[in-house]
Specification:
331 residues, Spore Coat Polysaccharide Biosynthesis Protein SpsA, Chain A, 18% strand
């Protein structure tokens, strides 16, 4: 009888012929080999599927499983298909344009001993010009699951899914919101944290995250509807107790944070796509004084940024564009 792998690695793949082989080889080069790799092809129109199939056949590695979806369903749907097929004790996600460093799995699995249910590591940002910079969550150390939820709402834990390994049982009854193209990582993480006994975060950079202006994160104009989709999923799956009472101010700070991220994404596009200005205007209107004051009670830095966007949008835009150029190499 085939034994259960310790980790299921889900790799969503859509038109990634230029990078998918690099990503797969980075998985096969892990210092720990007890995993399954689920490559989920989202009806690619290039030769992604042919490349993955040929690589799997050439290596003869039974740990590579290919799931070929008959129709394109988007990133959330692809991740859900991977979760439905996963058999590992733990689960993680790797974008097909990124890559692991060899100790990625070993470091996570060492952290997940005992009652730790979510492990978080750092990563290396690879800018379009090839330069690199390490990055990690502001919070480092160990937290109870509910405390980790609060930290994430206050922007103290990075919102990604690919820098984390989760105990797969946390996903029981939880899936990524189909139709959402932004904030699905953040919202699902916030739903999962209070289900976890402990969450551990380290700074060690263990994968390369490649910045691409054509990705979903960087390549489209976001809207305030992205915010509403994210919050609707939280309302459905996050227990009401974590949106009220002593947690309400953290929830309010997260709402302000999401609005600012939408505005920042629009600012990146407005020079070439003037329609993005309407998104910026919507975000400024939604940042009421009450919301900004509420955010200040949790994270003054978030409130200060929101206030600047509200009253001095040009200054906010210039500040963010300088930050984006320095951090991500995007102009």
């Amino acid at each position: 009888m085939k034994s259960t792998p310790r980790v299921s690695i889900i790799m969503p793949s859509y038109n990634v012929a230029e990078t998918v082989e690099r990503a797969i080889h980075s998985v096969l080069a892990q210092s720990v080999g007890d995993f399954e790799l689920l490559v989920v092809n989202d009806a690619s129109t290039d030769n992604t599927l042919a490349l993955v199939t040929a690589l799997a056949e050439a290596t003869g590695d039974p740990r590579i499983r290919i799931i070929d979806l008959p129709a394109n369903i988007g990133l959330s749907g692809v991740r859900n298909a991977g979760l439905d097929a996963a058999t590992g004790t733990f689960v993680t996600f790797l974008d097909a344009d990124d890559e692991y460093l060899p100790p990625f799995l070993a470091t996570h699995l060492a952290a997940l001993e005992g009652d730790t249910d979510i492990s978080i590591v750092g990563h290396i940002v690879v800018r379009p010009d090839g330069s690199e910079a390490p990055r990690h969550s502001p919070f480092l150390g160990e937290l109870a699951g509910v405390q980790a939820m609060q930290a994430a709402m206050a922007d103290q834990i990075l919102p990604f899914t690919w820098d984390k390994v989760y105990r797969r049982s946390l996903f029981e009854g939880v899936r990524y919101p189909v139709g959402s193209t932004r904030f699905e990582d953040m919202t699902v993480n916030i739903i999962l944290y209070p289900r976890a006994r402990k969450v551990r975060s380290v700074a060690t950079p263990l994968q390369r995250y490649y910045i691409s202006s054509g990705s979903l994160t960087w390549g489209r104009i976001p809207t305030e509807n992205d915010t509403e989709l994210a919050l609707a999923d939280l309302h459905e799956l996050l227990p009401a107790q974590y949106r009220a009472g002593k947690y309400s101010r953290f929830y309010a700070a997260m709402r302000v944070l999401i609005t600012m991220i939408v505005a920042q994404s629009a600012i990146m596009k407005v020079r070439n796509q003037p329609a993005a200005q309407s998104t910026i205007d919507d975000c400024r209107r939604s940042l009421t004084v009450k919301r900004i004051v509420g955010a200040a009670l949790v994270r003054p830095k978030i409130a200060a940024g929101a206030l600047l966007l509200k009253v001095a949008p040009r200054t906010f835009a210039k500040t963010y564009l300088r930050y984006s150029a320095g951090s991500y190499g995007l102009q």
